[in-house]
Design goal:
Blueprint: E1 17-21, E2 28-33, H1 40-46, E3 54-57, H2 59-77, E4 81-84, H3 94-106, E5 114-119, H4 121-133, E6 139-144, H5 147-153, E7 158-163, E8 166-173, E9 178-182, H6 191-208, H7 210-224, H8 228-248, H9 263-272, H10 280-297, H11 303-316, H12 327-336, E10 347-352, E11 355-359, H13 364-377
Parallel strand pairs: 2-9, 3-4, 3-5, 5-6, 6-9
Antiparallel strand pairs: 1-2, 7-8, 10-11
The structure holds nicotinamide-adenine-dinucleotide (NAD).
Nicotinamide-adenine-dinucleotide (NAD) binds next to helix 2, helix 4, helix 5 and helix 6.
Length: about 375
Amino acid sequence: MIRARNLNRGRRASAHKTLTVSLGKFSYPIHIGENLLPQAGSRLARLGFDTAPIVITNPTVFKLHGWKLCKSLQAVYGPISVIHIGDGERYKDQRSLNKIYDGLFHARADRKSWLVAFGGGVVGDIAGFAAATYMRGIRYVGVPTTLLAQVDSSVGGKVGINVPQGKNLIGSFHQPSAVLADTGVLKSLPARELAAGLFEVIKCGAIRSTAMIGYLEKHLSQILSCQSEALQHIVLESLRIKAGIVARDEKEKHLRMVLNFGHTVGHAIEAATHFKRFKHGEAVAWGMLAALGYSMELGLTPREEAVRLASLIDRVEKMPSLKGIELSELWDALIRDKKFRAGDIQLVLVPKLGVTRIRDCIRRQHFKAYLKHFLRRGKRIF
Ligand SMILES: NC(=O)c1ccc[n+]([C@@H]2O[C@H](COP(=O)([O-])OP(=O)(O)OC[C@H]3O[C@@H](n4cnc5c(N)ncnc54)[C@H](O)[C@@H]3O)[C@@H](O)[C@H]2O)c1
């Protein structure tokens, strides 16, 4: 059963922080802190947004936190239009996109209009794509409300929708003009959503920061019970890592690929189970375990490093099992993945926590045999 988080827990919080994603004239600020929603209007006005925005959201998020955001926007801009899409991955589709376009035309949005993407990764991806395409591109601001969206999807400009042929196959790069990450809203997240986002935080530590891994090991219970300072710390540090990587490789030519640690096998696991059994972050966690085990087998990652990360993953949540996934289905999903370069299997490996290596030309039969073993043994490979 999904537990709701105690909204009143851990009220004390440290000051708000601001990071910048440095992309020349497309640079943008990320504001991070608890209770930012009531300041959204004044902060955005200070950033130069001088007309009323159109908010894209879903009913779940809007019911929980929409009044705070709208009250603060209305105080500065007057009446605000809100466009709702359905809640869930299945609504990141062409129909919802058309609904957003219709809403924008109805609100007489023009090329100077701007959107606020208020929700998790689903809302962020589709609202960002609507912004990328409406009248050849308008500005948007991300106000992410899940941990996954705050530490990952709201920054970097990857926007898009799903089509029957696959996930995220229609999309674009369109950077937001600003991001406001109010860590206070994470307290209403169901426990499983919090855990799914935490796996992306672990990924950030695994690829770039042993300090982050150490922090997670020490403060996991505070994070899982939504203690304010712990939440702010992990959001800030994950965003620092992501913003640094995106600034150096906006369009994923090379460096940005390290953010895909765990995602190659993770996406295949999601696809092989028809996107039903696992949350995205949970599949990524399994993907990280698969990559670690393989790297261990190649003699690249010492066993104690792999075991350290696997133990941390294990402490977060009891993830859905891999039981029943057929190797053939996993393999088909893997070789269909758009991240494969001209049929080459490419994996991001972590030879040592905080350090990455991109391994090209993985030997197919060897990797397939390893996956068979991994599907059978799961976490017992460590
Ligand atoms: N663009 C990128 O770089 C990128 C990166 C990673 C993932 N993604 C995409 O992100 C999506 C997954 O995002 P997600 O995990 O945030 O899922 P989601 O957007 O579906 O949100 C998960 C659930 O939490 C609810 N919710 C959101 N905020 C809440 C809050 N504060 N309190 C209570 N409930 C809340 C939502 O209504 C939803 O039911 C996928 O579509 C994935 O492809 C994009």
